Amino acid sequence: MDYNTQRKRLRLPEYGRHIQQMVDHIASIEDREERNRLAKSLIAIMGNLNPQLRAVNNFRHKLWDHLFVMSDFNLDIDSPYPRPDMEKYNEKPRRVPYPSHPINFKYYGRIIELMIEKAIEMDEGPEKEAFKHLIANQMKKANISWNKESVTDDDIFRDMEHLSKGRLVMAPGSKLIDKREVKPVNSGKRSRHHRKR
């Protein structure tokens, strides 16, 4: 029996073993003109097998890069695009730093905190007041969505003041959206137990 585990490892499994075998065959041909002709034909086949690549900018360039990758960068053909760099292809991605900043109120999230920091930097005026009001409304929506409890405007104003270390205070008499205007997180989705049969 011939098992896939005993065969050569596929560099790009999404193309399948038949395409890999065609690439290996092209690499074994001695006549350069014949290699070029077969490579162009194989690029057309690869494009038909992966129509989703057409949505990618310059998808033909990507197909040619894939052809070189599948040949372990050993295919000697005339490509309409520069050959991909093997070292760049094999280099490890840069480490993504994990945010270590603690979040005071998890239900508000880090974005609310960043918005509050931005509001603190703004000059006093109607634009800053409008931005504070938008932030407070978003905080109320988040609080209701996560806590499912009644939350007063004063609770939100107090949290905003706490998060801004006292630098953002809402104007007296400010009103936020009504609780009835906040849609639950799963609105519109019916439980499978409540579907009509």
Tell me the number of structural domains.
Answer: 2
Outline the biggest β-sheet. Answer: none
The quaternary structure here is single chain
**Silhouette:** elongated
Q: Could you walk me through the main structural features you see in this protein, from its secondary elements to its overall organization?
A:
The chain has 197 residues and is mainly α. The chain has two domains: 9-90; 109-181, no CATH class. The protein contains seven helices and no strands. The two termini are 49 Å apart. The mean pLDDT is 85.
Structural features:
7 helices, 0% strand, 197 residues, mainly alpha, single chain, 48% helix
What's this entry about, in short?
The chain is mainly α and 197 residues long. It folds into 2 domains: 9-90; 109-181, no CATH class.
